[in-house]
Design a protein that fits this description.
Number of helices: 7
CATH superfamily of the largest domain: QueA-like
CATH class of the largest domain: Alpha Beta
Order of helices and strands: EEEEEEEEEEHHEHEEHEHEEEHHE
Shape: globular
Helix content: 10-25%
Mean pLDDT: 96
Structural class: alpha+beta
CATH topology of the largest domain: QueA-like
Low-confidence stretches: none
CATH architecture of the largest domain: 3-Layer(aba) Sandwich
Largest sheet: 10 strands, mixed
Length: 351
């Protein structure tokens, strides 16, 4: 299967640079899988298309301000993007320009010139870095980090992004990119779901920087994704599994939720453990599940998602779920109607 078969042309002006004033006023494409056609509504109407007993699975990960701007003593400006926590104060990070760095270098951030130490090179622009030891890690990140907006948003982050580049149910810190399908939810939408008799069940998948990275291999099957950490309450996972046997619909809010549920069902998980967290029993682990056309979905019946980059792992997952030709036609329909694309853009509900 060729990656070039999952390309489409997108005018740059359709890439949303700012969120809408109201989260749930985003337009929503209603798409029925395998040739059922598309139509338009707004996300505020989401609950109308669900039934009593449906399960809506959401990702409650919280984005950390993972991007830092600093300077070396030479005056060279360096960007450091924390990507994976190794231990207290020590992270894997993407650093640019990488060629200006060497092990042992210091990068100073903020007016007080706090030091981030460059420890070791990993290759492909990735390094191990050490955060300052004289300030708690969370405090340092909150004080000096910037919202890690994706590269297609061509502006600096602002105070608006600190709120809007999060879902309203974000509570477990750990992502360096947002689960953007959840951006459209408001308290009102959640109340509408409750009144409808739907169960909203949270899980967590901490999104890594791989969501921004292009797939490198032209042959789709040769690509791999970086592992990402997940956690889900045992009783929620049991309820989802039992739902499949009782005819209840499982709706995944986003590709992150889809990958977590399907990875658990297929055993594509590593370092699986059972832990007590906040007084409840959880399943935790890691997954690198890459979903592309040909994948057999066994858990997710319907999908809420945004409009994704061409040739991306996210777009391939949608094509796997709804069919490549049907998805391409739906995207062409969205382009003709000037939908807003990517993180701050409009949404799709695929049934």
């Amino acid at each position: 299967m060729k990656l070039s078969d999952f390309n489409y042309e997108l005018p740059e002006e359709l890439i949303a640079q700012h969120p809408l004033e109201d989260r749930d006023r985003s337009r929503m494409i209603l798409m029925e899988r395998w040739g059922g056609g598309v139509r338009e509504t707004h996300f505020s109407n989401f609950a109308r298309y669900l039934n009593q007993g449906d399960i809506v699975a959401i990702n409650e990960t919280k984005v950390i301000p993972a991007r830092f701007y600093g300077e070396k003593k030479t005056g060279a400006r360096i960007e450091i993007f924390l990507s994976r926590r190794l231990e207290e104060g020590r992270w894997e990070a993407l650093c640019r320009p990488s060629k200006r760095l060497s092990p042992g270098d210091s990068v100073f951030v903020g007016e007080t010139a706090r030091e981030i130490r460059i420890v070791r090179e990993l290759g492909n622009g990735e390094w191990i870095v050490a955060l300052p030891e004289d300030v708690p890690e969370k405090q340092f990140i909150k004080a000096f980090g910037h919202v890690p907006l994706p590269p297609y948003i061509k502006r600096e982050d602002s105070s608006e992004d600190a709120e809007r580049y999060q879902t309203i149910f974000a509570r477990r810190e750990g992502s360096v990119a947002a689960p953007t399908a959840g951006f459209h939810f408001t308290d009102k939408v959640l109340r509408d779901l409750e009144r409808k008799g739907c169960a909203v069940l949270p899980l967590t998948l901490h999104v890594g920087p791989g969501t921004f990275r292009p797939l490198e291999k032209e042959t789709v099957e040769e690509n791999v994704l970086s592992p990402e950490q997940f956690m889900i309450r045992e009783d929620y996972w049991e309820e989802i599994r039992e739902a499949k046997g009782s005819g209840r619909t499982v709706i995944a809010v986003g590709t992150t939720v889809t990958r977590t549920l399907e990875a658990l069902a297929s055993g594509r998980v590593t370092d699986v453990q059972k832990k007590e967290i906040d007084g409840a029993n959880y399943i935790t682990g890691w997954t690198d599940l890459f979903i592309y056309p040909g994948f057999r979905f066994t858990v997710v019946d319907a999908l809420v998602t945004n409009l994704h980059l061409p040739k991306s792992s996210l777009f391939l997952l949608v094509c796997a779920f709804a069919g490549r030709d049907e998805t391409m036609r739906a995207y062409e329909w969205a382009l003709q109607r000037r939908y807003r694309f990517y993180s701050y853009g409009d949404s799709m509900f695929i049934k």
